[in-house]
Amino acid sequence: MLLSLAIRDIVLIERLDIAFSGGLTVLTGETGAGKSILLDALSLALGGRGDAGLVRHGAAQGQVTAVFELSADHPVRTLLADNDVPDDGDLILRRVQTADGRTRAFVNDQTVSATLLRRIGAGLVEIHGQHDDRALVDPAQHRALLDAFGGLEHLATAVSGAFRDWRGAERALAELEGRIEAARREADYLRASVEELHALAPMPGEETELSEKRAVMMRGEKIASELAEAAEHLAGTGSPIPSLSSLMRRLERKGAEVGALLEEPLACLSAALDQLEEARAGFERALRESEFDPAVLEATEERLFKIRAASRKYDVASDDLSVLAVKMADDLSEIDAGEERLSELARTADAAKARYDALAAELSERRGETARHLETAVAAELPALKLERAQFIVTQTADPASRAAEGIDLIEFWVRTNPGTRPGPMMKVASGGELSRFLLALKVSLADKGSARRWCSTRSTPASAARWPRRSAPGSPGSARRCRYCR
């Protein structure tokens, strides 16, 4: 049922909040009071055609929010689930109309298309006006009306669920078939690639680690060569140390002859020789302690270049090579084990299809029985409406191959206005007056199967209703009567 209606900046209404209670609600007012504005606002929230003229003068946009309470098995809940719309309790429909003519639709605060909102609205509210009998003359609603008349909603919900299960199983089967077929086409490439990547066995982060290690070793290589060159100059055949040492010894022997003349320079030369010797020893020690190993550098570079080449070859980041190897191996496994998995999914899909077919066939049979009951119920109402020669017909076209969430039936209400004439859809065959009376008879018949009844507690008896059978209304004064057409 409709719980509340909130209207903002629609036509003359700046702000209005209406809360509805159970039972019948009547909004009254003189002509021009704005009753039609409320219906226009509700129609907008239900997915009706938007119009910039609905926005209140001076406002940038108008908005209507309608809140509904639905039973757990209401058909609209299936529609919500089929379109991935959240469904956590009350249903909230919201429509925003901008002054430039654009509209936005929301269901439970999720953006939806106007088409989906219109489908949801059609399953919630039936608006009747002087020229507005939407659900009763709309073939798209006839199936739901027939199900409601026959109390088939639970079975229809089960059929819808079975349809979703079957389609889900079919999608899973098709997806696996597609993956296996693609894998088969690339089996040789996959097998060679998996072997290459497994032999390479790259690890996430390995390229960065190897690159840093290579940089360190290359810096070590440069330092080591310079250390070796320094050591060679100080300790090799061209070293100045031996010749300077020999020269200093000769000068020391001559020192006694020249006195203090060579004392200071000989001391400096001796100190220089000591420092050169220390430098030589230090360079040799540093060279020995250097960690650089050309063989290790070569191996590191070879590994690094292989990983980079594989990254370019497969067009993925080096850190993702291991993930790619796993995926390719899985694809190969699907080729090897795919037939078994395909058979399993095919059995699941077949079972889901069989369950759907059984439920849909049961629903179709029940609809056929219900159609005859509805025809009988409407036929009983027609004579009092001066349509005693007319016939109401429920057409049912069942096609087991045309599986849908609603079942396998196409249901449409037809009429024959006179014996010998060709029957056809109500809107095409019946005149305006005949259509109104057919709809009244249909509405009464449908109401007899529903939970909501409308009561007429009038003390007087209208002359126009005198010929219609009446019964005392339970719980009302004895003189109160229940009118057949006000139930």
Automatic annotation (TrEMBL):
Residues 5-50 form the Rad50/SbcC-type AAA domain. Residues 458-481 are annotated as: Disordered. Residues 459-480 have a biased composition (Low complexity). InterPro entries: DNA_recomb/repair_RecN (IPR004604), P-loop_NTPase (IPR027417), Rad50/SbcC_AAA (IPR038729). CDD domains: ABC_RecN (cd03241). GO terms for biological process: DNA recombination; double-strand break repair; SOS response. Signal peptide: none annotated. Transmembrane segments: none annotated. Keywords: ATP-binding, Coiled coil, DNA damage, DNA repair, Nucleotide-binding. SUPFAM superfamilies: P-loop containing nucleoside triphosphate hydrolases. One of its GO terms (cellular component) is bacterial nucleoid. Pfam families: AAA_23 (PF13476). Residues 166-200, 266-293, 335-362 form a coiled coil. GO terms for molecular function: ATP binding; ATP hydrolysis activity. May be involved in recombinational repair of damaged DNA. Belongs to the RecN family. This is DNA repair protein RecN. It comes from Methylobrevis pamukkalensis. The lineage of its organism: Bacteria, Pseudomonadati, Pseudomonadota, Alphaproteobacteria, Hyphomicrobiales.
